[in-house]
Amino acid sequence: MKTRLLIGLAAMVLVFGGQPLWADEPHGEAKGQGKGYGEHGGGMKGRHGGAGHYLRHLLMHQKEIGLSEEQVGKIKALQLELDKTRIRTEAEIQVAQRELHELIRDEKAELGAIESKLKQGADLEVGLHLASIRARRDAMALLTPEQREKEKAEHDKMIKMRKEHRKGAKNGKEPGMGQGMKPGAEHSGPMH
Q1: Residue 35 pairs with which residues in a beta bridge?
Q2: How many Cβ atoms sit within 10 Å of the Cβ of residue 114?
C-alpha cells in the first residue's frame, strides 16, 4: 500500500507539479507563476511574490507613504536578502527536481530514496515560503500605524487603476482619461 502511494505521489508530482497557494499572496498571485517541485524546468519564480511585491510597492510609493531614509534602507536590505534566498533556494529546488526525475526513471531506485528526494523538495519550498512571510512581516513592522494606512490607500488606488485598465482593454480602449490614468501620466514599474 505504501509503495503504491509513493508511486502515485511521484507520478502526480511529475504530471501536475506542485502548485500550492501561498498564504502571503493575496488574489491568487501564485496561480500560473513558476512551476512547482517536480515539474520540468521548474523553480519557484513568483511563489514568493507576495513579499517581493509588497517590498517593491513600499519602495515605489515611499514618498506617498512617508517612509524615512532609514526605513527605505531597511526595506531595501530585506528585499536584497529575500532575493538572495529565493535565487539560492530555486537553484537547489531545480537540482533536487533533476535528481528526482533520474530516480523515478531508474526502476532499481529504492522508494525510500524517491521519498527522501520528494521531502527534500517540499522542505525547500516550505523554507522559501517562510522566508517570504518573514520578510513581509519584518517590513510591516517597520511602518507606523499612519504609514500602514497610507500604504493601504496607495494599494487600493493601484488596484482600482488596474481594474479600470482591464475594463478599458476589454472594451478595446487605450487606458487614459477616465480609466484610472492621469493625463500625461505614465506608469513605470509593475502594476499592483
Answers
A1: 43
A2: 20
Closest CA to 124 of 99, 78, 80, 91: 91
38, 121 contact by CB (below 8 A):
yes
Q: What are phi and psi of 48, to 5 degrees?
A: -95, 15
Distance spanning both ends of the chain, measured CA to CA: 47
pLDDT at residue 174 above 70?
no
Q: What is the pLDDT of residue 170?
A: 80
**Other residues' Cβ atoms within 10 Å of the Cβ of residue 31:** 10
Alpha helices (H) in the chain, listed in sequence order: 2-16, 49-60, 62-65, 69-105, 111-142, 145-170
Q: What is the pTM of this model?
A: 0.62
Which is more confident, 32 or 176? 176
Q: How far is CA 123 from CA 31, 66, 167, in A?
A: 20, 38, 41
What count of other Cβ atoms lies within 10 Å of the Cβ of residue 46? 19
Q: What's the pLDDT tens digit per position in 3-31?
A: 555 555 454 444 334 433 333 333 333 33
